[in-house]
Amino acid sequence: MCGIVGFVGRRNAVPVLLEGLKRLEYRGYDSAGVAVLLDGQLQIRKCVGRLRNLEQQLQQAPLAGAPGIGHTRWATHGEPSDVNSHPHTDSSGRIAVVHNGIIENYQELRRELEQKGHIFRSETDTEVIPHLIENELADGAANFEDAVRRALRRARGAYALGILFADDPEILYAARHGSPLIVGVGDGEHFIASDVPAILNETSRVIYLNDGEIAVLKADGASVFTLDGRAVRPEIKKVEFQAEAIERAGFETFMMKEIHEQPRVLRSLIAKHIDSNGHAQLPGFSLADEYIKGLARIMIVSCGTAYHAGMYGRLLFENLAHVPVETDLASEFRYRNPMVDPGTLIIAVSQSGETADTLASVRLARKWGCKVLSICNVRGSTLTRESDAVFYTEAGPEIGVASTKAYTAQLMAFCLLTLHIARIRGTISDSATRELARALQRIPDAVHYVLGRKDDIQKIAGKHHDGPSSLYLGRKYNYPTALEGALKNKEISYQHAEGYAAGEMKHGPIALINEYLPVVCICTRTEDEVYDKMISNIKEVEARHGRIIAVATENDRTVAGLAEDVISVPDMRDEFSPIVNIVALQLLAYYAAQARGTDIDKPRNLAKSVTVE
Ligand code: AGP
Fold this sequence. Notes:
Elements: E1 3-8, H1 13-23, E2 31-38, E3 41-48, H2 51-60, E4 68-73, E5 88-89, E6 95-103, H3 106-115, H4 128-138, H5 144-154, E7 157-165, E8 172-177, E9 182-185, E10 190-193, E11 205-208, E12 213-218, E13 221-226, E14 231-232, E15 236-238, H6 254-260, H7 262-273, H8 289-293, E16 297-302, H9 304-321, E17 325-329, H10 330-333, E18 344-350, H11 356-367, E19 371-376, H12 382-385, E20 389-392, H13 405-425, H14 430-441, H15 443-451, H16 454-464, E21 469-474, H17 479-493, E22 496-501, E23 518-523, H18 530-543, E24 547-553, H19 557-562, E25 565-569, H20 577-596
Parallel strand pairs: 16-17, 16-18, 18-19, 19-20, 21-22, 21-23, 23-24, 24-25
Antiparallel strand pairs: 1-4, 1-10, 2-3, 2-4, 5-6, 6-7, 7-8, 8-12, 9-10, 9-11, 11-15, 12-13, 13-14
2-deoxy-2-amino glucitol-6-phosphate is lined by residues 303-306, 350-352, 355, 358, 401-403, 491, 606, 609-610.
């Protein structure tokens, strides 16, 4: 979604803003703009399209000045266009604003302001903010800060804002409510950004703003206030990862780099959490053993890829920890009556920790008295600050819009949490725990093995990428794998793909099968009847001449005899095979996208973190 960068200090803001916006490109956007203060005037450049369009505009009409604000816009209200791009100004052109979020009552505010003579130029909800501030200044606000506070008290919805006043040239104002915004603390300068990577080359000291806070930033100082004017002591935190973590490190895309990081991420999660007895240890985990023993139910809420991780988590918890579990899409959970009570543990899964629906679900659940455990990749994110306990997936920054390493880290988080909870609840024996831990430890090498097959996978993708559609089938632990594999394909190759529980195939999707349809069947060997059932499904596809691409255990002759193409994976325990199998499907989607010539790291229309409903 929209990205914000801002700078106040004694050098030209423009290069800082452009570099920051480039580092936020992964969030998804369709237009971009900057504003800086120069000789008491606000100077703005903005246009539709990629950042290179803005750079071209800046070459033709250069800008220099400070403070400055920059923005990448992901259109919600009003089409992507030059005029709808941010920054937006008030009637006088003396106040400039960049915004991420949605001002829900913008129509009524706009009507009111228009009646007072304000002239609006864009179709955006954002434009009401500079006009509201202008209005408050005219209506007797004590100063600029007071005008911002008064204006924001009238706005309903979500916002992260960067605000400049031509008549207050030393200060950059920032505000946050429901959309992410951080303050970067430099030497004699300050920054704002939607996300840490935007400013990591400038500083690693950050202040995470809370909802309802306004930051007043000068070159030499930062003050933070609440909307009612109370001063808040800002806490400066050190960001743990290095700037190199957000470089491509020689890979052609961030997504490919992140796919390759998976063995390392998984290995370090295992090393951190499995002790020498094979027990899962969760240092700093703040849910008491007594609470875990008495757990009546778990409800997992999340969106997209994180939802698929939740589906996998449910199977593990039910099978190994014997807890009743429900999963729901956060966007649905918040509008139903899920009958949860304080005995229900809510597990929210989110790479970014900023997904609007997931956050809304968590807030509801807390209102109902439930405890919240989050599985999250971003330290300091809103979700982690609103949870009772956090399992950090520690996959490092994920820049590719399509989630890869964060997903496998989420699956691993569920494995480790399950082992921990199962041991406390006494549902698995010590020897079974040790055996599971040993199997877990084999996963990173198994993922490495799959990465080693990428040339074969590329060839397979090359044969099947040009059709209009494909079907992905899996069962039990690999049903979420089928959904996630299909989602990856859709997201980055734009080929329609449908993930299905293989047992459901006969209830509809079988009608799609003909000699052109690629059907990806996840059929790794298991100790239960699921394997036999998958073989039957594959035969049903074969009988209808579907083009079978199987993900199968190496040396499985049965599957090899049925499939047109086989992606071999090492022999794994049933429970853990999804962590390995999905890597094959990430690569399959990747090479299909490459063959189709899409923008893999920044697929069209997608945003990395969906911070509006
Ligand atoms: C993953 O490839 C997607 N881009 C998307 O489905 C994502 O998983 C979803 O938006 C949830 O994001 P979150 O994990 O940051 O909450």
